[in-house]
Design a protein that fits this description.
There is one protein chain. The chain has 297 residues and is α/β, with parallel strands linked by helices. The chain has one domain: Aldolase class I (TIM Barrel, Alpha-Beta Barrel). 47% of the residues lie in helices and 10% in strands. It contains twelve helices and eight strands. A six-stranded parallel β-sheet has the order 2-3-4-5-6-7. Strands 1-8 form a two-stranded parallel sheet. Strand 4, helix 4 and strand 5 form a beta-alpha-beta unit. Helix 3 runs parallel beside helix 4, helix 4 packs parallel to helix 6 and helix 9 packs antiparallel against helix 10. It is globular and about 50 Å long.
């Protein structure tokens, strides 16, 4: 039986040693940290996890360790960013065989297809796997437009397409349009949760932010689920400066890792090229924001 994909599903940061090699113990620590903070799922190899920098063998080794560490407690959602159909199908099948509970799949973005081509791509994956597919609608990254009618068509024609992660600004109005156009498609938000309250109030069933503020996102989710919108806004207003800081193109991953280092979760904030590292001024700016949330961390 498939697990429900909803709630707060942080994208795991991928820790590296200072020399750039994978820190396997650190990866397990990140998993433990977000689960201790109340996460409802685990996102693997998303953009906030530098999945685009990982070798094939590293992906396999990391996913094996993550699935084992999670041990069935929450769904493991694996990001797939391959831009060739056959490659994407192969990676999706492999992730399922390794224990993924769902797949978060970007559309082809090198040779960007039309709507029929997008459907062909996801249909090929849907025919090959037996776990839910989350369509990642991220045009800021892919430059692939996916209008509500296309997302509804994917859900209608491909049984394994059950979710869509909406990252096409303005996200909240698009979620309304997607839910109106589709029958049963589950919508989730991303973009570090910058509009998560509006998205959830319009019918989204979760958010997939970065991994450093999980407890706050869970609090917001719990407040909204309990009908306490004012309390949700109070919590969101508290984290908003850091949410905003982490949305700087190319710098969010570095900020997340520095926050995890400061809190003792991982040992190094090393990122892999082309991910950018914060400069000295940025580190000072980040420290001010971090102190507001975790004094003396």
């Amino acid at each position: 039986m498939s697990k429900t994909i909803e709630g707060i599903i942080p994208i795991l940061a991928t820790p590296f040693h200072d020399d750039g090699s994978i820190d396997m113990d650190g990866q397990k620590q990140v998993v433990d940290h977000i689960l201790d903070q109340g996460a409802h799922g685990v996102g693997v190899f998303g953009n906030a996890g530098e999945g685009y920098t990982l070798l094939a063998d590293e992906r396999r080794t990391l996913l094996e360790a993550i699935v084992k560490r999670v041990d069935g407690r929450v769904p493991v959602v694996v990001g797939i960013g391959a831009t060739g159909t056959d490659v994407a199908v192969s990676l999706c099948k492999e992730a399922e065989q390794q224990g993924a509970d769902a797949l978060m799949v970007l559309p082809p973005y090198y040779l960007r297809p039309d709507g029929d081509g997008v459907v062909f791509f996801y249909q090929a994956i849907g025919d090959a796997v037996g776990i839910p597919i989350m369509v990642q609608d991220a045009p800021l990254l892919t430059q692939v437009p996916m209008p509500p009618a296309l997302l509804a068509r994917l859900a209608r024609e491909i049984p394994m397409v059950t979710c869509a992660k909406i990252e096409a600004p303005p996200t909240a109005p698009k979620i309304s349009l997607v839910l109106k156009a589709s029958d049963g498609l589950v919508a989730l938000g991303g973009l570090n949760g910058q509009f998560m309250i509006e998205e959830i109030q319009r019918g989204a069933r979760g958010c997939m932010p970065a991994a450093d503020m999980t407890s706050f996102y869970v609090q917001i989710w719990d407040h909204l689920e309990g009908g306490a919108a004012s309390s949700a806004w109070d919590c969101f207003t508290r984290i908003l400066p850091l949410v905003r800081f982490e949305l700087q193109p190319g710098l969010g991953v570095s900020a997340v890792k520095h926050n995890l280092v400061a809190r003792g979760v991982i040992k190094s904030a090393r990122v892999r090229h082309p991910t950018k590292a914060l400069d000295a001024a940025g580190l000072l700016e980040l420290a001010v924001l971090r102190e507001r949330l975790w004094p003396s961390s």
